[in-house]
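Re: [ENG-882] Designed sequences occasionally contain unexpected residues at chain ends

Forwarding the minimal case from QA. Structure tokens:
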């Protein structure tokens, strides 16, 4: 891959992180090293456990969140996001990783934990050939315009609302 593209997976539907992890699995299946930085997440969902336990030779996963729900720019959440972005910036440099996922970074920007300028600067600093994926609801218009590929996941129907089912191990977490 001579050129690495920038993907944005956004929207209110289910599947943004799942799509990004699917891309990581595909790339790792071709021997490419991948980095997944999960902003706002502090517990290892099923995909994190699988990647860490079975793909650690090719995939690095790091969580940059604190326990609890983020609803605004709490200084501790800002610090966690900024530390995470610094770590992602390292992962983007030197071409060690061919795919870098910034999971939930759009939400981190929405809540004011990071700015688009900070995220854009990190993405622009990447080594040649590094593919970057930004996920999460509320992607800023600037990110959409900047990206090479944008996918919006739209919710049409969800059992959370129709059946009152909450998240389930192996399906949503």
């Amino acid at each position: 891959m001579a050129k690495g593209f920038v993907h944005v997976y956004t929207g209110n539907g289910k599947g943004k992180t799942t799509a990004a992890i699917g891309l990581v699995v595909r790339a790792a299946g071709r021997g490419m090293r991948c980095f997944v930085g999960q902003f706002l997440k502090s517990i290892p969902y099923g995909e994190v456990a699988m990647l860490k336990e079975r793909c650690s030779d090719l995939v690095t996963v790091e969580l940059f969140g604190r326990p609890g729900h983020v609803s605004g720019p709490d200084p501790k959440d800002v610090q966690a996001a900024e530390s995470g972005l610094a770590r992602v910036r390292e992962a983007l440099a030197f071409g060690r990783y061919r795919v870098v996922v910034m999971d939930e970074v759009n939400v981190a920007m929405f809540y004011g934990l990071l700015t688009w300028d900070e995220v854009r600067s990190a993405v622009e600093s990447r080594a040649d050939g590094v593919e970057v994926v930004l996920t999460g609801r509320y992607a800023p218009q600037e990110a959409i315009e900047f990206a090479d590929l944008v996918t919006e996941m739209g919710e049409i129907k969800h059992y959370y609302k129709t059946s009152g089912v909450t998240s389930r191990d192996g399906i949503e977490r």
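QA comment: On inspection the terminal residues look reasonable. The chain has one domain: 6-11+21-155. Proposing we downgrade this to a documentation issue.
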